[in-house]
Amino acid sequence: MAQWKVRVDQDVCIGDAICASLCPDVFEMNDEGKSQVIVEIIGEDLIDCAREAAEACPVSCIYIEEA
Fold first, then answer.
1. From CA 64, how far away is CA 58, in angstroms rounded?
2. Which residue ranges make up each domain of the chain?
3. What does this protein do (predicted)?
4. pLDDT tens for residues 1-53?
5. For the whole model, what pTM was predicted?
6. CA distance 12 to 32
């Protein structure tokens, strides 16, 4: 089964929270109002919503790569 690593560049994140609303099983907002990854390695069950969140991010600070 394929797996992917998800990362948020918090230096670039503006706290839009679209990722957390689109894919709450992968992303949440931290105390600084920035997105953070809940589950760093995801499987096929979460890749579609993670990709949707990455595409919707207004500053493109979400990175997904094969694990």
1. 16
2. 4-66
3. Ferredoxins are iron-sulfur proteins that transfer electrons in a wide variety of metabolic reactions.
4. 899 999 999 999 999 999 999 999 999 999 999 999 999 899 999 999 999 99
5. 0.94
6. 13
Buried residues in 13-39 as b, exposed as e (16+ CB within 10 A) = beebebbbebbeebbebeeeebbbbee
Six-digit token string for 31: 């105390």
How many Å apart are CA 34 and CA 53, to the nearest integer? 14
Both tokens assigned to 27: 């992303």
3 state SS for 1-58:
CCCEEEEECCCCCCCCCHHHHHCCCCEEECCCCCEEECCCEECHHHHHHHHHHHHHCC
